[in-house]
Write a structure and sequence with these properties.
By secondary structure, the protein is an alpha+beta fold. The protein has one domain: Penicillin V Acylase, Chain A. It has nine helices and 19 strands. Strand 11 and strand 12 form a beta hairpin. Helix 7 packs parallel to helix 9 and helix 8 packs antiparallel against helix 9.
Length: 436
């Protein structure tokens, strides 16, 4: 097992009481191996034969009769998603967590569970129930890395336009709690004795393995029983968790999609510009926007803007490290551009993910000198997208009210195509400018 070759990630959520417009906003950075591409997948609502089975990455499970339409971000070789959003406005992000449990070579990956929760959950609570039932029945296992074996358990934030939940796991054991205002997770179990529910034998299993020695009167502490700091040093995630909590707290009541994007771009004191060369023993070596290969590099990001009106639910997607990327608004209802779904093991000119990877590699030659120029270009475009998306969403909602759903789909699809055209023009110009 390569030392410290781990997947990172940070997921954050703000409920209506903490956001500027009363919506729910979920953000996530997916940190993976630096050269592992992560394209988007769009899957329509589907019906399946009763009694059919479904092959996930490593295990086969019973299929349900209907699965929901969704968009998800998928490491190119995997079945499951790092994060995604479905047609009902359920959004999920996951994290690797390291526990005392020994996982098998076969089971559900955390990314399988993200996709299954999105396919089967019309609300955050439904998705939570789907995922916990599957955990109890099939457990977790199998390597989440393409070229070597290393298993890990997972934590999740599951949100919809009304509420959100944190789910943390160790094998088939789990604890969950409902979010009250804001929440964030990173790469360690953080639910202590403040859980709302546990897997049926979470306490008994921990006692049996000698992981829990609390008194009978003491409320079971899930983190104390299951968390391990032997495989991965705590500084990799603890400083990031403190920083994301600090940033959410400072902006509580005014959190917007834009401010969530800024949090995902955070690099501590230097804010959105990465400072290389930190000592790996320093927790600030590992920032929310991650540049820490082989520990992990941010490969893709989401800001899900979840509002009560179906046609105003937006999936803002960015490729590569968000400090060098641009968030584009996407809609499950429309057809996302095909170029967003293309990416394999090697560079390809027709892959948006790989084009942003090339830009990021160029910025990495001089973060301090080049990042501000790239961010200047993308911030102007994001502002344009934000302004136009409000009008497009309102028009789509009006078309639905007039029973003209096909026109709404065409409108949203054209909007996404036009936006990508603008991104690609600026992306190629920036790449050429930095190369010269």
């Amino acid at each position: 097992m390569p030392r410290l070759s781990v997947a990172g990630c940070d997921t954050l959520v703000a409920l209506g009481s903490a956001t500027a417009d009363g919506s729910v906003i979920l953000g996530k950075n997916s940190d993976r191996p630096a050269d592992e591409s992560q394209p988007l997948s769009q899957i329509p609502r589907l019906t399946h034969k009763r009694g059919a089975s479904l092959k996930c990455q490593y295990v086969e499970i019973p299929q349900v009769e209907e699965t929901l339409a969704l968009i998800g971000s998928r490491p190119y070789w995997l079945w499951g998603f790092e994060h995604g959003m479905n047609e009902c406005g359920v959004a999920i992000g996951n994290e690797a967590v390291f526990t005392k449990e020994t996982l098998s070579d076969s089971g559900l990956l955390g990314m399988d569970l993200v996709r299954l929760g999105l396919e089967r959950g019309r609300t955050a609570r439904q998705a939570l129930d789907v995922m916990t039932r599957l955990l109890e029945e099939f457990g977790q296992g199998g390597s989440a890395f393409e070229h070597y074996q290393w298993q890990y358990s997972n934590s999740f934030i599951i949100a919809d336009p009304r509420e959100a939940y944190i789910l943390e796991t160790s094998g088939s054991q789990y604890a969950w709690k409902k979010v009250s205002e804001t929440a964030r997770i990173s790469n360690h179990i953080a639910i202590v004795a403040d859980w709302d529910a546990l897997s049926p034998d979470a306490c008994e299993h921990a006692v049996m393995n000698g992981w829990w020695h609390g008194a009978a009167s003491e409320r079971f502490n899930f983190s104390a029983a299951y968390r391990s700091i032997e495989a991965v040093p705590p500084q990799i995630s603890e400083e990031r968790l403190r920083q994301s909590g600090k940033l959410l707290g400072e902006q509580s009541g005014q959190i917007s999609p834009h401010s969530m994007m800024r949090i995902l771009r955070n690099h501590y004191e230097s804010e959105t510009v990465f400072t290389p060369g930190r000592d790996p023993s320093d927790g600030k070596c590992y920032s929310i926007c991650m540049h820490a290969d082989p520990v992990g590099t941010t490969a893709a990001s989401i800001v899900a803007h979840l509002r009560g009106t179906d046609h105003r639910i937006a999936y803002w997607a960015s490729f590569g490290t968000p400090c060098c990327g641009v968030f584009m608004p996407l809609y499950v209802e429309g057809k996302i551009p095909l170029a967003l779904t293309r990416a394999g093991a090697r560079f390809s000119e027709d892959s948006v993910w790989w084009l942003f990877k090339r830009l990021g590699d160029s910025v990495a030659q001089d973060f301090e000198g080049r990042t501000p120029r790239v961010q200047e270009v993308w911030s102007g475009l994001e502002a344009e997208f934000a302004e136009k998306s409000a009008d497009v969403e309102a028009e789509a909602e009006s078309l639905h009210a007039k029973n003209r759903a096909d026109e709404a789909v065409s409108l949203l699809s054209r909007f996404m195509d036009d936006n990508l055209d603008k991104v690609l023009i600026r992306l190629r110009d920036l790449t050429a400018e930095l190369a010269s």
